Amino acid sequence: MIKVLVADDHEMVRIGVSAYLSAQPDIEVIAEADDGDQAVEQALQLKPDIILMDLVMKRMDGIEATKQIMEVNPQAKIIIVTSFLDDEKVYPALEAGATSYILKTSKADEIAKAIRATHQGQTVLEPEVTGKIMNRMRQKKGNEPHTHLTEREQEILLLIAEGKNNQEIADQLFIALKTVKVHVSNILGKLGVNDRTQAAIYAFKHDLVE
């Protein structure tokens, strides 16, 4: 049996979800909480397999409750069940340690499926949440230091990673040695590294070269 704690300050929602889950052959609702404080207390005392956590609750919200539970029990599996999809709720909830994130508009059987999947170690996210995460990753990738290098600087960085010195780079690219030195200085500055070795390591770590 998958032991579940349901935390939601809306009584009708809490009762409805608990009733449906209790009718499942493999799920047992072992407790309910109507605020964040109670959710933390019961989660730490009863150690349920899954915690269904509402985000907006009195006294303590779901984000803070999730954070406090995870600090004491990093193995806890928390599914956020909410009506909110704005960035101010999604990212803090996931960063606090929530495993999955679904909406209250989900069908009852989808919530049950999310519980089973999360219990098995999977992450279940609303498509909109997945889209938000992908967009943030793309934005973060676009802000990485090497994306600010010019084409010539990128070319020289790859040659540095290959172990070529300034004179060899100048000969291969048919440019002046002084020009290479200027480019190398710019590369080090943009990457925030101190020397050519660190620049080469940066290139390998970011898969810029094989």
Automatic annotation (TrEMBL):
The modification 4-aspartylphosphate is found at residue 54. Residues 3-119 form the Response regulatory domain. The keyword Methyltransferase does not apply. Keywords: DNA-binding, Phosphoprotein, Transcription, Transcription regulation. Residues 142-207 form the HTH luxR-type domain. It holds the Pfam family GerE. It comes from the Bacteria. CDD domains: LuxR_C_like, REC_NarL-like. The keyword Cell inner membrane does not apply. This is NarL family two-component system response regulator LiaR. The lineage of its organism: Bacteria, Bacillati, Bacillota, Bacilli, Bacillales.
